[in-house]
Specification:
single chain; 273 residues; alpha/beta; Rossmann fold; two-stranded parallel sheet; 41% helix; 12% strand
């Protein structure tokens, strides 16, 4: 599969933003330093590391992700998912069937008060299906980490509600991807289980080279330590070391033999029946 991918198209929020919001804000937000060249981290973000692993040059990454973006809610901060998708469709007469289309979005919907997990997933599903119908053949979709267990949220009164919404979002997304895969079998839709990866790292960080998964490096009390040992850079966003882990996980999933992918898709479809 790696030899067939020639371009990345990225849809998402601050976790995938490579500096778009930074440029729009006159290179003032997020502040550099402590953030790295407009990324919401201390270094490059996961889609950049993933592209590097596939041998995709930066000029072959078209990134519509922007900090603050939502899936279904209208946000004054950033274009939501459907606006991002329209930007692709308006600038491309034909979908590139040799590209990888990446989707990771939804957290800001819940941070901004969304209480119905069906709505963000419906929008996300519609966007993914549209890309697949128009000829996108390789689609990577990440689910949400437990939004109630981030450094900035776990002490809030709504932490439990955010956890419940994250879980419902992921369950709905899992079912929806199975349905799309069944209806549009020509597309290879791969789920990146960010929720499971976050949980594995937080439960047992040492094998991943991390020592602190509970606190944000930028909280002020840890600035004498190496940020590479931290999962979180600030209260919401992860360090570039964590982004590398996500990229490695995504790469390993994407390069599985076609037969294994087919088996995984078959399993997903059977589980929703």
């Amino acid at each position: 599969m790696s030899s067939l991918i020639n371009h990345f198209y990225v849809f998402g929020d601050s976790l995938s933003d490579m500096g778009s919001l930074f440029e729009i804000n006159g290179r003032t937000y997020p502040a550099d330093p402590p953030y790295f060249q407009g990324r919401f981290s201390n270094g490059r973000v996961w889609v950049e590391y993933l592209a590097e692993q596939f041998g995709i040059a930066p000029e072959h990454i078209t990134n519509y992700a922007r900090g603050g973006a939502t899936a279904s809610r209208v946000s004054p901060l950033a274009p939501n998912l459907m606006v991002q998708l329209q930007s692709l469709l308006q600038s491309h007469v034909q979908i590139n069937s040799s590209a990888l289309y990446i989707f990771w979005i939804g957290a800001n919907d819940y941070f901004q008060g969304e209480t119905n997990p069906v709505l963000p997933v419906e929008t996300l599903t519609r966007a993914i299906a549209e890309v697949a119908r128009l000829g996108g053949r390789r689609i990577l979709v990440a689910n949400l980490p437990d939004l109630g267990q981030l450094p900035a949220t776990r002490i809030r009164d709504n932490a439990e509600a955010l956890s419940a919404l994250s879980k419902a979002h992921n369950l709905n997304l899992h079912r929806a991807l199975g349905q799309i895969q069944e209806e549009l079998p020509a597309a290879q839709i791969t789920l990146l289980d960010a929720c499971e990866l976050y949980q594995c790292v937080m439960t047992n960080p040492l094998p991943f080279g991390l020592t602190n998964t509970q606190h944000a490096y930028l909280s002020g009390q840890f600035n004498h330590r190496s940020p590479e040992q931290f999962l979180f850079w600030d209260g919401i966003h992860i360090t570039t070391a964590a982004h590398k882990l996500i990229a490695e996980t995504a790469f390993n999933i994407l390069v599985q033999p076609e037969a294994e992918i087919a088996q995984l898709n078959s399993t997903v479809v059977s589980q929703i029946r």
